[in-house]
């Protein structure tokens, strides 16, 4: 598959993964039991697995391995933070206020991850906004 093909798969998986998280997070805050159903969790795992596969495919076809660019390392570090915040946002044993804050911050981190990917710079959209012409 070409890098353009991997890019489309990656873009679709990012959209699906973030949508799954957002819907599950809001439903968990509302106390909906389907959030913890096996099929719901399996759908999230499937979306995240496709995202990982497409990311690796994109990295290999774009020539970003073995010399990984700084912005991509930064993106991976933010991904770990996003996963930790998302986990906290979905936990039922955590106070609702903390879950709301963790979910909001997780989505802000996800937006920065997207910005870093688009700008190919650790500053993400902030870098792109600072450039002129």
UniProtKB/TrEMBL annotation:
Keywords: Membrane, Transmembrane, Transmembrane helix. It comes from Tepidimonas aquatica. It comes from the Bacteria. The chain crosses the membrane at residues 6-30, 42-64, 70-88, 100-119. The lineage of its organism: Bacteria, Pseudomonadati, Pseudomonadota, Betaproteobacteria, Burkholderiales. Signal peptide: none annotated. InterPro entries: SirB. The keyword Calcium does not apply. This is Up-regulator, SirB. One of its GO terms (cellular component) is plasma membrane.
């Amino acid at each position: 598959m070409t890098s353009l093909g991997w890019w489309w798969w990656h873009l679709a998986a990012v959209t699906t993964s973030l949508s799954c998280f957002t819907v599950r997070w809001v439903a968990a805050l509302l106390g909906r039991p389907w959030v913890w159903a096996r099929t719901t969790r399996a759908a999230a795992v499937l979306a995240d697995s496709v995202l990982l596969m497409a990311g690796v495919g994109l990295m290999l076809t774009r020539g970003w391995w073995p010399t990984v660019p700084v912005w991509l390392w930064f993106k991976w570090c933010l991904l770990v933070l996003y996963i930790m915040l998302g986990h906290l946002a979905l936990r039922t044993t955590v106070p609702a206020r903390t879950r709301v804050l963790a979910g909001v911050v997780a989505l802000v981190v996800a937006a920065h991850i997207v910005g870093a990917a688009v700008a190919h710079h650790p500053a993400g959209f902030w870098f792109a906004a600072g450039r002129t012409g």
